[in-house]
Here is the input.
Amino acid sequence: QPEDPRAAKIPRYVRVNSLLWTAEEARQSFISRGFSPSSSEAITSQEFAQDHHVPDLFLFAPQTQFHEDAAYKAGKLILQDKASCFPAVVLSPPVSEDGAVIDATAAPGNKTSHLSALMRNKGKLFAFERDHKRFSTLQNMLQKAGCRNVEAINADFLSVSPEDKKYGAVTHILLDPSCSGSGIVNRLDYLLDPADRQSENDSEGVEMERLHKLATFQLSMIKHAMKFPGVVKIVYSTCSVHATENERVVCQALKSQEAQTAHYTLAPREAILRDWPRRGIPEEMDDREQALSVIRCRPGDDATNGFFVACFIKASQPDSRDV
Ligand code: SAM
Here is the structure.
């Protein structure tokens, strides 16, 4: 398949795994390998830069290869698109021995390892993955990345009882469910999900039906997460460009019985990457304010793949920490 021209606008992003390495150690290593810090926006093939939105994230020219790199093989560097780093940053998980977090849809584990790093290996991170094969990929990744606070569980998140005492201390949930994958123009870092397949050959009707099925599933996952009594913050993300899976799912979730019962609302703009300019599509939401409270990334144009992030908080627990 010929490469999507938008992929050429996306740098090679490399996240330093702070459980095993520091950003400064990574910088020195890049320099010792002949790369120099870039002094401008444009990065040549021999340069690198540090990202402005995601701590510990570095940018290289798009064609830079890291798959044979020793630090990558050792789990010190994680190849992860910038937009896909947003959910863990927005969730801003607790950093304490009694902190407890769920990653409801974890494999291959990029966001799980990111959360574990932000938690500094403290507390407990329950990582669910229902697919057996992908679960084993997840386990390998977590081991390689030195994530010691993660309990990986090969189960369907929807089958987990919100009343189960095991998860009674959980306050934060990351929800990155299967989606159409329509935002991915640079497939290097994505392990395809069974649901996430190219649909160019589908007729419009078949495509619509598939999106509606995905949206129903995505909504059921959010509503399930909202039932966990101790949870105060849920981050929902997709790598889809379709409003059906993004703004419209969020609006339905906000109007659901589960959201009303638990008093969920959207986190305010300031709490969800305040400096990121591209927000939701107002026409697809109930009001403009709501659209400002969600994030979009347009494939290529934002130097990322296409992505969407929303953050639900319990109204009784406003969390307006800047991220
Ligand atoms: N968050 C992952 C990362 O950043 O590496 C990517 C997650 S991928 C988009 C969605 C994953 O959720 C797939 O591996 C899929 O098998 C899994 N999944 C889908 N439905 C699930 C469910 N009900 N319970 C647990 N896992 C599920």
Summary: The longest helix spans residues 204-225.
